[in-house]
C-alpha cells in the first residue's frame, strides 16, 4: 500500500476517501487490485463469467458487484432523462429513428416458455443517443405519448410502416416531420436513401446480443439491464465510460 500524509504528519492510505478505499465502493472488503480490474472489465464489456474466472471471485461476489454497478447506471438514467431530436445548430431538424421490438423470445422454440416484452426505442441518427422503454403493447395510445415525451418539437421522425405511426405528422398541429419506410417493400427508400431505420435496427441487434449474454430470460431485472445498456450507449469509449461510472457513484453515494 502506498502511504501519504494527511497534512498533519500522520501516514494514511493513498486510497482513503476514494472509490478504491476498502469497503467504500461495494460496502465490503474489496481487494483494490481486483476492484480495479473488475471495473475495467465491466467498462470493456468482458463477460461476467470470464471476469469471475480471471479474478478468482466467487460467483456470488461477482454477481453482487455487477448488480451494484448496474443499479448505479439505471438510477443515473432515471435521474437524467434526455430528450431527443429538435433542431441542430444550423436550424435543421434532427433525425430520430423509432421502432419497437420483442424481447425474451425463445430461440428456435427451445427452452422454457417465457412471456416476452415489447420495447419501444428512439435513437438520434447522428449522435447515437437513445431511449428505450418497456411498453405493454404497440398501439397508438401507448406509443404516441412516448414519442411526445421523448422527441422534441421539430424532430424529423423516421419509422417503419406500423399503423400506430400513421398520424405523427399531424400531432399538435404538425410539430414533427415524419417519413416511413415500408419494410414489406424496401428497407431503404429507393428514391430517398436517407429514409431508413437501419440505426434503430442496429440498436436492437446490439441490445439483444448484450442482454441475452448477460441474463438470458430473467424478467424481473429486465428494466435495469435495459437502462444499463442505454447508459452505456450514452458513454462510448472505455475510459470515458469508467470515469462516468465513478462520477455517478460519487453522486449517488457521497463520501
Textual characterization of the structure:
The protein is α/β, with parallel strands linked by helices and 255 residues long. It has two domains: 3-80 and 235-252; 84-219, Nucleotidyltransferase, domain 5 (2-Layer Sandwich). Helices cover 38% and strands 17% of the residues. The protein contains seven helices and nine strands. The chain has helices spanning 32-43, 48-54, 59-79, 140-150, 198-215, 222-234, 238-252; strands at residues 3-5, 11-13, 84-85, 95-103, 117-124, 130-135, 151-152, 156-160, 177-181. The strands form three sheets. Strands 6-5-4-8-9 form a five-stranded mixed beta sheet, with helices on both faces. A two-stranded antiparallel sheet has the order 1-2. It comes from Ridgeia piscesae. This is ISXO2-like transposase domain-containing protein. Pfam families: DDE_Tnp_IS1595. Residues 83-234 form the ISXO2-like transposase domain.
Amino acid at each position: 500500500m502506498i502511504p501519504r500524509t494527511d497534512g498533519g504528519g500522520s501516514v494514511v492510505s493513498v486510497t482513503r476517501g476514494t472509490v478504491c478505499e476498502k469497503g467504500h465502493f461495494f460496502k465490503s472488503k474489496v481487494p483494490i487490485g481486483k476492484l480495479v480490474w473488475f471495473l475495467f472489465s465491466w467498462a470493456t464489456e468482458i463477460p461476467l463469467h470470464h471476469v469471475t474466472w480471471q479474478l478468482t471471485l466467487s460467483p456470488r461476489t461477482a454477481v453482487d458487484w455487477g448488480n451494484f454497478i448496474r443499479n448505479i447506471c439505471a438510477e443515473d438514467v432515471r435521474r437524467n432523462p434526455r430528450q431527443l431530436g429538435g433542431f441542430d445548430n444550423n436550424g435543421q431538424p434532427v433525425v430520430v429513428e423509432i421502432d419497437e421490438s420483442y424481447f425474451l423470445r425463445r430461440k428456435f422454440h427451445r427452452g422454457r416458455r417465457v412471456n416476452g416484452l415489447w420495447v419501444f426505442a428512439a435513437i438520434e441518427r447522428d449522435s447515437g443517443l437513445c431511449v428505450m422503454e418497456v411498453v405493454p403493447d404497440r398501439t397508438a395510445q401507448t406509443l404516441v405519448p412516448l414519442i411526445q415525451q421523448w422527441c422534441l418539437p421539430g424532430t424529423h421522425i423516421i419509422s417503419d410502416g406500423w399503423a400506430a405511426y400513421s398520424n405523427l405528422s399531424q400531432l399538435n398541429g404538425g410539430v414533427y416531420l415524419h417519413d416511413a419506410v415500408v419494410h414489406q417493400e424496401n428497407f431503404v427508400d429507393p428514391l430517398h436513401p436517407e429514409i431508413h431505420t437501419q440505426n434503430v435496427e442496429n440498436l436492437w441487434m446490439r441490445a439483444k446480443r448484450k442482454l441475452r449474454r448477460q441474463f438470458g430470460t430473467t424478467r424481473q431485472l429486465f428494466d435495469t439491464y435495459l437502462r444499463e445498456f442505454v447508459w452505456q450507449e450514452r458513454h462510448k469509449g472505455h475510459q470515458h465510460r469508467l470515469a462516468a461510472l465513478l462520477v455517478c457513484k460519487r453522486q449517488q453515494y457521497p463520501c
